[in-house]
Every structure is written in C-alpha cells, then in structure tokens.
Design goal:
Length: about 160
C-alpha cells in the first residue's frame, strides 16, 4: 500500500452536541399528549414536569414523540450505531457510502474520536496506529478507483461523524 502520510498523525476531534431547535413549550406538548391518553386534567399544585416525570416512570415514553428537538452531534460512528437503535428519533448522518473523504470538502483526511477508555499511552498508540492504517488504506483504495462505498469497508468505529 502506498502511504502518503508525510509523517503526519491522524486528525483527532473532540465530540460535541449543538442544539439546532426545540419545540416551544415542549413539556406542555408532552403533557397534553399524556393527559389525552389518561383522560386526566391538571390538578392544583401539579405541573407539566411532574406529570411527564410520573408517566415516564410508568414507562409511557411514546408521548415524547410529540415534541421535537434538533441537534447536531459530533461523535464517532460507534456511538451513532448505538443511537440509531432507538426508535424515538429521526437521524441524518454523514454518509460513508457517498461522501469521499479524499475530496477537498474533507481536506483529504479523515478525523477520529479518541475512545475514552484508552487508559495508557501504549493503548493510545496502538489505537492511533490502527486509525493511521485505516486512513491510508481508505485513501489508497480511492486513489486506485474504488468508490467511497467500497473504500468505507476499512474504516473503524472511531471515524468522526455528524
């Protein structure tokens, strides 16, 4: 494999969450949906928050779907694989099938999120080297004419995504 790393290490990125939007009066929307299900009305001293907490404790979570919030999460693909397993949201994610990390829009490099469980410098070094090898393999496959969909097969769960 032809490596063109030029002595550079892989790019490391910190995870983050940014709020895009939230439904106004979100708790009240959830409360209204829940009260419809239970045919209950708010009594004196009760609050939307108390009611929603009560029905959440009962396991009645479908009412949350009536409120919406939009966020951008910057994390690794391993985390997003866990997020999408839960049905209570809709997801849009950077596509490793169509996005070509060798192109200018990505600066011709891949970015990775360091797993929090790497406890020693030796563990970190082993992880970093594996990311470097994966990046080199990906870029080499692209140079040789592979589509991003094929080249992505060498990418690790630590690959940064939004």
């Amino acid at each position: 494999m032809e490596a063109e790393r030029k002595g550079e290490e892989v790019k490391l990125v910190e995870p983050y969450v940014n709020l895009l939007h939230a439904t106004p009066k979100m708790v009240e929307v959830i409360e209204q949906a829940g009260r419809l299900c239970y045919k209950s009305e708010r009594k004196e001293g009760d609050t939307p928050e108390r009611f929603v907490n009560r029905i959440m404790k009962l396991g009645h979570e479908s009412v949350i779907e009536h409120a919406t919030v939009g966020v951008i999460i910057g994390t690794d693909r391993g985390v997003t694989h866990e997020l999408v397993r839960h049905r209570i949201a809709s997801y849009s994610q950077t596509s490793t099938r169509y996005c070509n990390y060798a192109k200018d829009s990505f600066g011709g490099e891949l970015s990775f999120v360091v797993p929090s469980g790497l406890k020693t410098p030796e563990m970190f070094k082993a992880w970093r080297v594996s990311c470097e090898v994966a990046e080199d393999a990906y870029l080499d496959l692209i140079r040789k004419g592979a589509t991003p969909q094929i080249a992505r097969s060498v990418l690790p769960n630590s690959l940064f995504t939004e």
